[in-house]
Amino acid sequence: MKKKRIYCSFCGAPITTRFIDEKYRDHCDNCNTTFYENPLPVASCIVINKNREVLLVLRKNEPYKDMWCLPIGFAESGESIEQAALRELKEEAGVNGEIVRIIDVDTVSNYFYGDLAIITFEVIQLSETCKPGDDAADAKFFPMDNYPQLAWESNEKALNKFIDLYKDIWTMIDSLKIIQPDIITHHDIPKEKSKQYTLISNIIAFMIDDEIELFTKQWKSEMPHFNDNIFHFLLSIHQMSLHTIKLWLTGNRIWKNFREFYIMGTYLKKENISLKDILSAIALSRKCIWIQAIEKNILHSPLEVYTMLEINNRIILFYDKITYFLIKGYEHL
Ligand SMILES: [Zn+2]
C-alpha cells in the first residue's frame, strides 16, 4: 500500500498525527509543518477503432498485474495532463494519438497510491497499428460490450460515460447504413438480436414478422368487399409486400423479389382486376405498417422519430417500386 511518512522531510524529526482543518494530518511538531495530502493527477485514454472496439492494455507489473485497463499513468512535472495521456498511450500501446475531449474526471482513494484524480480523454488513433510497450504485456482492441474486467473502476465509469455520449450517434449511423442498402454488407448487421432491436428499421421488420396476422386483419377490415377470387389476389399483394419489405428493411438484397411483383401483375391483368383496386390494396398495405408502428409505440426518443422519418422515405420508395413492377407486369399482357 501507499508508503507512510515517518520523518519530516524538512527537519528529519519524527512525524505525529494532529487534527487540523477538520482532518487528521501528518504534522511535524519540531518545525511546525503540516503535511496536506493532494491527489496525484493520472491521465487515461479511450481509443476506439473503426469497428468500435476499445483499446486496452494488459498490465505487466503490480499493482493489478495481469489485469486489463485503459492506457493510464501518472502525469509528470513539466508536462500537461493531455501530454501525459498521449505519452502513456505511446508508452503502453505504441499508439500515436490526438486528444478529442475530456470524457471523465474521477477522484478516487486508492490502496496502493493514495488519493488520485483520474482524467480520462477520448483520443483518436493516428498510427495504424498498436503494439505493447515495456510496461504492458499486451495491447489490443476489445468489443465495447464484451471486454474483460478492468483494473480500475474509474476506467469502467469513463467507458460507460463514453458509450452514453456516443450511443445515439452510433444508432443514427447504423440506421443510415440500413437506409442505404447499397453500402450495407452482411458484416454490418449486428449478429445479436438484442442489438438489432436498436435499429428502428429492424424493429419494424421484426414487428411485421411477429404480428403478420394483425397486419392482415387490419388490411382485411379496411378493404372494401370483393368477390372471393379478387379478394384473394389483392390479399396476396399485401402479403407479398409485407414479406418483401421485411427482407428489405433488414438489409437483404431483393432485386429478384421485384420480379415476383411483375409476374403478379400479369396474373392480375388475366383475372381482369382493375388497376384502381390494385392500387388501393397497395396503399392500404403501406398504411397498415404505420398504424401498427404507431400503436406499438415504438418511437421513444427524438432520435427514433428522426430515424423514422428516414425509414418512412424508404418505405414509400419500396411501395413505389412494387407498384411500378405490378403495373409493368399488368400492362405487359
Ligand atoms: Zn520538521
Describe this structure in words.
This protein has three domains: 1-37, Ubiquitin Ligase Nedd4, Chain: W (Single Sheet); 40-165, Nucleoside Triphosphate Pyrophosphohydrolase (Alpha-Beta Complex), CATH 3.90.79; 188-332, Globin-like. It is 47% helix and 20% strand. It has helices spanning 81-93, 153-179, 193-196, 200-210, 212-222, 228-249, 255-270, 275-295, 302-332; strands spanning 16-20, 23-28, 33-35, 40-46, 53-59, 68-69, 72-74, 97-110, 114-125, 136-143. The strands form three sheets. Strands 7-4-9-8 form a four-stranded mixed β-sheet. Helix 2 (153-179) packs parallel to helix 9 (302-332), helix 4 runs antiparallel to helix 6 and helix 8 (275-295) runs antiparallel to helix 9 (302-332). The longest helix is centred in the last third of the chain and has 31 residues, at 302-332. The termini are far apart. The model is unreliable at 181-189 (pLDDT under 50). Bound molecules: zinc ion. The site of zinc ion has 8 residues, from loops.
- What is the CATH top level name of the largest domain? Mainly Alpha
Give helix % range.
Answer: 40-55%
Mean pLDDT: 86
Widest β-sheet, arrangement of strands: 7-4-9-8
Structural domain tally: 3
**SSE topology string:** EEEEEEEHEEEHHHHHHHH
Question: What structural category arises from helix and sheet content?
Answer: alpha+beta
Uncertain ranges: 181-189
The count of strands amounts to: 10
Proportion of strand residues: 15-25%
Largest sheet at a glance?
4 strands, mixed
Query: Which fold name corresponds to the CATH topology of the largest domain?
Result: Globin-like
Radius of gyration: 31 Å
- For the termini, the CA-CA separation is 88 Å
